Amino acid sequence: MRSHRSEIGERWFVVAAVGVICVATLTGCVVKPNLGQIDGTVTAASGLPATGCGITMVVISGGPVPELAAVTSAAGTFSWPVPPGRYEVTASCDGVPIHASVDVVADETVAVDMAE
Fold it and tell me: Tag placement on the chain: N or C end, fewer CB within 10 Å?
């Protein structure tokens, strides 16, 4: 016959084990992956910033891109957080595509200069 004290000890062990598993599972769901970032500048043939250009990205290797598209600012710049990997970035300004291949590393920013 088991004592009342050993049953209480077993119950506390089970409760503690379940608690550890729950915390580990929830932490895994909340932790964000380490992203890198692409900071780009698009310049028009005139040398001025290319504003309002559509920016798209094709994943060559790496994780899915969290956004589908971006647009250059009035300064001709864009900033895009992405998972580590290799990407083909395309800027479409006035129907003329400009391409650049970019390798992104976690927790680092890659600068991309694109010119018409």
Answer: N
What backbone phi and psi angles, to 5 degrees, belong to 10?
-65, -40
**Mean pLDDT of successive 10-residue stretches along the chain, which has 116 residues:** 58 49 49 86 96 95 85 97 95 93 97 96
Fold of 36-115: Immunoglobulin-like (2.60.40)
Pair type for strands 96-104 and 85-93: antiparallel
Asked if 35 and 68 touch (Cβ cutoff 8 Å), the reply is no
Cβ atoms within 10 Å, residue 35: 16
CA-to-CA separations, 42 to 49, 67, 68, 71, 89, in angstroms, rounded: 6, 19, 18, 10, 11
Q: Give domain limits for the chain.
A: 1-31, 36-115
Assigned token pair, 3 = 């004592």
CA-wise closest residue to 89 among 98, 81, 76: 98
